[in-house]
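Morning!

This is the sequence you dropped in the shared folder:
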Amino acid sequence: MRSDLAEPRRWRATGLVAALLLVALAALAGCSHEVSIRPPKPPQDVAASRADAAQQALDTLRRAIATGRPAPDLAAPGAAALVPQILRNAAALRVRHVSLDYLDANLGVPSRAQAARFGAGAWVASVQISYRIPEDTGATHMEAAFTFVPGRRTATIAAIGGHGERSPLWMRGSLQVRRTARTLVLDAGPGSPAPYVRLAKHAVRDVNLVLPRWRGRLVIEVPASEGELDSVLDAQRATYANIAAVTTTVDGSTIRGAPVHVFLNPSVFGTLKTKGAQVVVSHETTHVATNAPFAQMPTWLLEGFADYVALDHAGVPVQTAAAQILARIRKHGLPHGLPTATDLEPTAGGLGATYEEAWLACHYLGATYGEAKLVAFYRAVDHGMSLSAAFRNIVGVSQAQFVAGWRQDLARLAG
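The structure's back. Tokens below.
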């Protein structure tokens, strides 16, 4: 979410006088200090006129989404395809209950590329978006950056996304949408979405083998690139460089009931073979089924349980699925304890081996004490029971006893 206390954004002055003023300020500041200048606020009447024109455009877009009718007056020069694409996506997704409210224009200025493409009159503003699709149990609410361009009668919409805000994938450009009884795929890539549909359907079956009472729906979003994934989720560049997929709320909130989707990173996911891709999607589907974005539990249990669902009924030999951690144990010895949250950070080194380590903890629990106890253990911790109490009350051993037995099992597997 955007903060009203955000640092002032830089602006590009145009014209000789403004350029000379910047040079003079830089000289006064000294060469060793960067000059930070607040972007000048447009006169009140200009700001109000922009806000009115933009809100008219948003109202027109909202009505077009609701009725399915075209809105040719909204097409900005250089972005004629954007609004028709949004309307096609909205119809395919069966988007309902849309609201679009202009908030302010304090997100900065268009990028140099946008200014060259859309003209000097373009401006960027924050827009409050709300909508719902049938697969979600609640509505999505977020603030997104809209780039507007003055039009003949009202503003036109040139781009959506970026500028430190999340943005819905379906409002960014062309999508292929595929729906089954319990899955929905939004694919912004150039290929066929059929492989994602097959993976999604199989993942639902995998989850129901371990969690038969889950009857929810799975939504998978596939951005066109890793950069678009970062923009959709408002993530720092390279945050997901080593991650094939992430399960999170669409709007970034941590409020239970917010829609939870799986987002694939095509740069990494595209390198996986079929079985590896299935494990990833089934893992992430487990997170959807268990509302993992809202869970308060140790990361090893959260991730290890998801891998248990994805792997333990997939017919993958343990020696194959745990090859990285077993190689690390042979080289560096046994871990002293269960993996920490820091060990499982997306940017941590040796992340693949550590994920396998977490999985083997859940695999050992399920194999030794029974899958029903593993599920009950997970649910107890998810509902607030401490880890030590869950080991005693659900599994019937102390945490120290469990860790000792797990380490012995690792030694056996590595030996």
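Headline: The two ends are 50 Å apart (CA to CA).

More detail when I'm at my desk.
O.
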